[in-house]
Amino acid sequence: PAYPLALFPTLLLTLFVGVAQGFIFPAIHTFLAKWVPPQERSRSVSLTTSGMYLGATCDMLFFPSHV
């Protein structure tokens, strides 16, 4: 690594993000199920999911140092 002392904080933050995502995904679906009308739910879930992947793709494209 470019900065060896950053390895532990990076691993710790990666672990935190992984644990947080375990709670975020069910919370998003619960929120959408309660607040979005039934005829628009599939569209809202697909937009939400594709937005997450688009954000990750743009991050890797525009900020390759994050990889």
UniProtKB/TrEMBL annotation:
Keywords of the record, alphabetical order, are: Membrane, Signal, Transmembrane, Transmembrane helix
Gene3D superfamilies per record: MFS general substrate transporter like domains
- Please state where this protein is localized: Membrane
The UniProt entry, under InterPro entries, shows: MFS (IPR011701), MFS_dom (IPR020846), MFS_Na/Anion_cotransporter (IPR050382), MFS_trans_sf (IPR036259)
Q: Which Pfam families match?
A: MFS_1
Q: Which GO terms describe its molecular function?
A: transmembrane transporter activity
Signal sequence coordinates: 1-22
Bilayer-crossing regions: none
Bilayer topology: Multi-pass membrane protein
Residues annotated as domain Major facilitator superfamily (MFS) profile: 1-67
Can you name a GO cellular component term?
A: membrane
Tell me which domain of life the UniProt entry assigns to the organism this sequence originates from: Eukaryota
Family membership: Belongs to the major facilitator superfamily. Sodium/anion cotransporter (TC 2.A.1.14) family.
Known role? Probable anion transporter.
Protein name as annotated: Major facilitator superfamily (MFS) profile domain-containing protein
